[in-house]
Write a structure and sequence with these properties.
The complex is a heterodimer of chains A (390) and B (294).
Chain A lengths: L1 H25 L8 E8 L6 H20 L7 E8 L4 H13 L5 E3 L4 H13 L4 E3 L19 E3 L4 H15 L4 E7 L3 H17 L2 E8 L7 H9 L4 E3 L4 H13 L6 E3 L6 H7 L7 E5 L8 H14 L5 H20 L4 H9 L4 E3 L2 E5 L5 E3 L1 E7 L2 E8 L2
Parallel strand pairs in A: 1-2, 1-3, 3-4, 4-5, 6-7, 6-8, 8-9, 9-10
Antiparallel strand pairs in A: 10-14, 11-12, 12-13, 14-15
Helix pairs in contact in A: 2-11, 3-4, 5-6, 8-9, 11-12
Chain B lengths: L1 H31 L6 H17 L5 H24 L7 H23 L14 E3 L6 E3 H23 L1 H11 L1 H6 L4 H27 L8 H14 L4 H20 L6 H15 L14
Antiparallel strand pairs in B: 1-2
Helix pairs in contact in B: 1-5, 1-8, 1-9, 1-10, 2-3, 2-4, 2-8, 2-9, 3-8, 5-6, 5-8, 6-8, 9-10, 9-11, 10-11
The chains are: A alpha/beta (390), B mainly alpha (294).
């Protein structure tokens, strides 16, 4: 029995080896190829698939436009798109595969901070730059010792910046000096935002009257909201994701807590208005990467092109992906050669790159210095309120 | 003081939801001694049926509630016939494992059909808040609906079990299955009735909670299912008024724990109470130490 099992396992392993070989032989060598290969490592299936699909749609639109206008350095850009199934281990595998087998010039993605961190080591090891357009965690480009990860970049602002911006906005723009905070204790994103909001707000002279926590997937928030209401805050900061925030805002309004609610890019979903109801969402403000209500000519052009290709409204993830496509092409152009080390140097030296989501320069920590958009929800529609330059 | 009364109102409204789900739990346990872990998921299916009826077919609240209860009772009978009946005479652990598998099957089967994303219910009940006694204390009209439905369903159940022939056979089966069979009671039919009723209750709870919180997803039954189980045990599993009492007790406890600063420990507190009750009074707070159940 044992022998037979061994034989079976051996056969299985040999089989996998062979399949590996056959796949490899079909791969074209890319050293002196006609195209510039770029790898897309995205969540095309799994629980954050909407993010990954949105970003890759945006990137593909950008690459299509670039190729139509003659490509980069006289070559066309070829996209190698692979699904990482919203899984950490798979994101790392895809990274390795893109770097070693497909020999891409750069890897774009993944969407979430967790997957980006998992995909990073393989990119650094193989000296291929990896750029994420949506990993907002502070430690994506910098390791625990504060050392910059050489080949890792991101083009979206960090969570700490969102927290700081909202604290300033509440204190200066809304002139509200007494805040309450309600955060998701199971999410690093929410805890990070809370920390930065609190530090900035108290440093400015504001007071935090109450700090309460909830857990993702909770449905009843009336007990904590009643407690918060009793402290009479002027403003409520709820850095969370739309599913919980929708319920929180709705229940807060039902309890008669009508103060402004502030949040971050986790609010960005049409579901927010569906869950909370349109009236409840008045006086809700949040920071985001992009506003579809922004009427700058570039943004309008992008919106029209996106609508023509995909037949739907472009959201923040589409815009971030679109910018990432151009951002990559810009770096290759400035590098003058499709070589991953040269491209990395060009990326690090990016100055005043103009995109849909704002003008950005890469700082010494490989983070962008970039404007943040503040949206106000009016009648269930997020409307453009102002853009804050860093 | 205002705040305390408001928190009690919050606790009662949360408790009424637990009580509603706990009713079905306790009923099935009372008759065939099976902890039906799929109960929370039947509640989820009920919510989706209500969602489909009101969103796509534009039914109003009460017809949607009744059809949803009907669909769930049929689902309950099918589950009993397919999954529980073949193992009715095997060990209790086998039944428990089967119940967990049925629960997972419903959760992920549903996820395959309706996708994992959250859906929102249309507003079916008047969403109105009233201020009690001209103070700051707010009461939601929809809470009154839920409490009303819970109490009336409890009364109907008590009536069925103690005043009708079906109820009599249910009590007989729960006391001694073999003896009941010898007396000419159709066991299969009785157990089917039990499942139909228990699942109908879950379906009603699903629609009510769906309209109340306005958001449903395929895993929505897991946490309330567990809480309702705790509520049923606290009140004394198998006892109908016990389930309602346990539900309100748990809801108020959780709310008060949150109100006094322990919002992160509320689940820990409710499970600690469960352990304590099991140690001190294993038959539940309303349980008597006699053999009769239901």
């Amino acid at each position: 029995m044992k022998k037979r099992f061994c034989l079976l396992m051996t056969l299985l392993f040999t089989f996998t080896l062979f399949t590996g070989c056959t796949q490899k032989s079909t791969q074209a060598s890319s050293t002196d190829s006609e195209t510039i290969k770029v790898g897309l490592n995205y969540e095309l299936s799994g629980n954050v698939a909407t993010y990954g699909q949105g970003l890759s749609n945006g990137i593909e639109l950008a690459i299509e436009e670039i190729n139509k206008n003659g490509g980069v350095l006289g070559k066309q850009i070829e996209v190698v798109k692979i699904d990482n199934k919203s899984d950490n281990a798979e994101a790392a595998n895809v990274s390795t595969r893109l770097a070693t087998r497909d020999k891409v010039v750069a890897i774009l993605g993944p969407a979430t901070s967790g997957n980006t961190k998992a995909a990073s080591p393989a990119a650094v090891q193989n000296k291929v730059p990896l750029i994420s357009a949506s990993a907002t965690a502070d430690d994506v480009t910098v390791d625990a010792n504060g050392k910059v990860r050489e080949y890792i970049f991101k083009t979206c602002f960090s969570d700490s910046f969102q927290g700081v911006t909202m604290a300033n906005f509440a204190f200066h723009d809304l002139s509200l000096k007494n805040a309450a905070v309600l955060f998701d204790n199971t999410s690093d994103y929410s805890k990070g935002l809370t920390k930065n909001f609190k530090e900035t707000y108290t440093a400015l002279g504001g007071k935090i009257l109450a700090e309460e926590a909830y857990q993702a997937k909770d449905t009843d928030y009336k007990a904590v909201l009643t407690k918060i209401k009793a402290t009479n805050p002027e403003v409520l900061y709820v850095p969370g994701y739309y599913e919980e925030v929708g319920l929180i805002v709705r229940q807060a309004r039902e309890l008669g807590l009508t103060v402004p609610v502030l949040g971050a890019d986790g609010y960005d979903s049409p579901k927010l208005a569906e869950i909370a109801g349109k009236e409840a969402l008045n006086k809700v403000y949040y920071t985001n990467h992009y506003s579809s209500m922004d009427n700058a000519p570039d943004v309008v052009k992008f919106k029209t092109a996106f609508n023509a290709k995909y037949g739907k409204e472009a959201d923040a993830f589409h815009a971030l992906g679109y910018d990432l496509g151009y951002f990559f092409a810009d770096a290759v152009t400035r590098a003058g050669v499709a070589d991953s080390v040269k491209v990395k140097e060009a990326l690090a030296a990016t100055k005043d790159f103009k995109g849909i989501t704002g003008t950005l320069s890469i700082d010494e920590n490989h983070n962008p210095v970039k404007a943040v958009t503040i949206l106000e929800v009016k009648n269930g529609e997020p409307t453009f309120l102002k853009k804050l330059e860093p | 003081m205002d705040q305390f009364i408001q928190q009690m109102v919050n606790g009662i409204s949360l408790g009424s939801i637990y009580a509603l789900i706990a009713l079905g739990y306790t009923m099935v346990y009372g008759i065939i001694n099976l902890i039906n872990f799929a109960h929370g998921d039947i509640y989820m299916v009920g919510a989706y049926v209500g969602f489909a009826l009101t969103t796509f077919l534009h039914f109003s609240f009460f017809p949607a509630l009744f059809i949803s209860m009907l669909v769930c009772s049929i689902l309950g009978i099918i589950i009993e016939k397919v999954a529980y009946k073949p193992i009715r005479n095997s060990t209790r652990i086998a039944a428990l494992i089967t119940a967990i598998s049925v629960s997972l099957f419903l959760e992920y089967g549903m996820m395959y059909f309706v996708k994992a994303e959250t859906r929102t219910f249309p507003a079916l009940l008047p969403n109105k808040q009233i201020n009690l006694f001209h103070t700051n204390i707010v009461l939601d009209i929809r809470n009154l609906y839920i409490i009303f439905v819970t109490i009336s369903l409890m009364a109907i159940l008590q009536y069925i079990i103690y005043k009708t022939k079906v109820g009599k056979s249910m009590r007989a089966v729960s006391l001694d299955r073999d003896a009941a069979q010898l007396m000419g009671i159709d066991i299969n039919k009785t157990i089917s009735y039990t499942f139909a009723m228990g699942s109908a209750l879950a379906g009603a709870a699903g629609v009510l909670v769906g309209t109340y919180y306005n958001s449903i997803n395929p895993l929505m039954g897991v946490a309330p299912g567990l809480k309702a189980f705790v509520a049923a045990v606290i009140g004394g599993i198998g006892i109908i008024p016990g389930a309602v009492f346990g539900g309100f007790f748990l809801g108020i406890t959780e709310t008060l724990v949150s109100a006094f600063g322990g919002s992160l420990y509320k689940d820990a507190v409710s499970f600690t109470i469960l352990i304590f009750v099991l140690l001190v009074k294993p038959n539940g707070l309303l349980g008597k130490n006699i053999k009769e159940k239901v």
